[in-house]
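Render this sequence as a predicted structure.
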Amino acid sequence: MFFKLNRIVVLSFVTLFSLLVSNASFGTPENDLLDAIQQDNYPEAESLLKIGVDFQQITSFSRLPITNNMSNLLLRYGLGLERFLGLVMGFSNSGNDDSITTRKKELIAIALKREKGPKLLLEIATGGMWKYKDDSRMVLSLSDLEQEYYVIRALEAGASFSDIKEINGSHLPSPKVAELMLENSLDPTVLLKSVLGADCRKWNSVTHSYEIAPELVTRKYDVAKLILETKKVDFDNIGSWSFGMLPSIELSELLLGKGLNLEKFLGLVMASYNTGQTPAGKDEFDSNQKRLVELALEKGVKSSLLLNMVVSNSWEYAPHHSRGLSLSDSNRGYYTDLAFKKGAKLSEIEARGNLNLSSLEAVFKVLENPSYPKDFLDPNELIVLALRGDCSEYNPEKHDSVVSEKLIAKRNDLIKLVLKVNANPDRLLELAVNRSWHDKKGERNRLSMHNQEDVMKMALDRGAKFSNIKVIGGVGDSHPPSIEAAKLMLNDPENSLSPNDLLNLAVSATCKEWDSKKQAEEIVPKLVAQRDEVLELALANKADPNKIRYFNAPPSIEISKKLLDKYRLDPNTYLNLVSRIFCMEHSEKTKKYELDIDLINQRNTLIELAKEKGASAREIDDSHMLAFAKLLDDIIKTENNDSEFVINVTDEIGKTLLMLAAEAGYIGFVEELLMMKADRDKKDKSGKTALDLAREVGNSSEYLEDLLTGKICLLNKETSSSSSSTSSSSSIN
């Protein structure tokens, strides 16, 4: 009996404790504050505010503040005027309660009495959004009457549309409200951008998805027509994200008829993203996009532009600025075929950088289409396209792009396909060894070249010869050859690369990779070790260390000692090489070139090693580096809206970047600048060329002489047209 009673008592205590816990207030300070507001408990609200509340956690009112005192209390303790307005304007009145409408107006009046109230009210009412976090905005469901009321009240309180340079939001105003905005000096271009970006979807509770609402599509057209027929719009300021969703055919015709550039229109259409959440919605998007692309082609846009967008999977909306596309595989194939049918040629592909492999597959399918003439495709052009295929994909776990073996296999399949249609294997081998290609303008571009040895094997299996190719060296290449590729270059006595060529392929590598955290390129120890291993392999195969042109990245102490002791590199030659290592880095923070102290320390350690080995001591002057950086910064500052890089601009004594680089002996930069069309014959104010200056300070060399006299052609814009016809060049063009 005693046991039973005790057991009952214990169970009773447990039950009572559970009830107490369930009824206890474990709410956050923010929820407690909302309760105090709802109950109009001023003392409790003030007490909570004094302790501290995270206002960013408050995104809605459970009840509007009943008294003005409560409203002023919230504002006094840091709620923020924009949050206050957003909470009031966003308070739901689905039952059309007159008392709520009246109270909202009273609270708006409180905000308008504050300094920034009218301006904030106008901005929120115009865009239909308010900022509840530094990088996040909340959408308001404003009726036409509400938006009109808020705009009028803000204007009456002294706000002006002339202060609004961009509308933060995508609320689609009624024609009446749009007319009100224009009459009160809202920039018509700003309004049109907002209208074009407006979402014309509504939530369908049956399908549980957003679906296009025909009445909103009609409204978008009506408002755009009102703007375009009553005001002058600057279409140059219609940005790359202007189409929040695809426009209708009618709206497209209107925009093009009023002056929207055809090429920009095509880019905006191709860069639009699929907002359909159901299979039917996606099919509708694909169908609408195709119709608009066909409209652009009918209006006269070049089919080559469409082809370039597809193969690069991007739209270059401004020089060196592009936006990625989200094309479905079916549309990608459709657009490729459409571009070719409309007359596009592979020779017209000018897209820079890596290319989308799925898009390339669509391009290469043309090879299997008997309806195209035999001379339609140049296999040697296809080789370059295949090698430019992007073999990396985004890894959400690492928040970065990683190399995909699946994509490498896909790229290799494309290369094999091209070799079957008689592409020149020597061409493939040359591209693989140099890991770079020249575009139509003669400018040299990097090739990522994942699994370099696989590509070389495919070329060699088809009969390619190292003796038939020209080795330029990996100028600006971050990676040295892989050790497997290096061995392949030297293994066959009957078909091998010159060890001296391999030597310079290795030392020209920068050994850098992009560090996404630091937002800068950093030297990677693993790549330095790889570079040194390839370097030693070349030396072991009797490469002449005195043929080294320059080091793009400091050699390690270990390989340096081997160069000096085992391979008998002249200490003075070594000193000359390491003293010319360019110790500057571009700072993302200051946007300027600055001395890299770590690089300078590494270089100075190597200089001391050279002196220990008997090199003649000489003072190292870094003034050339500083002058080079200053002039480069000046050039960057003169760029206006991504205008062409003015490579031949001079400093106060008439020196160009090429002159400064040559004078200091920075051979890698001399190569880069010549490929960027730097004028080798230009003279400074004393009448001296870059070569004259290099000779004057003793920084000339046989290779530098050849570069600056034009004996070595790096296929820049000036020489690419003639290099293919000169008998002295063995390069496969």
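Summary. Residues 1-25, 638-645, 715-733 have pLDDT under 50 and may be disordered. The CA atoms of residues 232 and 631 lie 41 Å apart.
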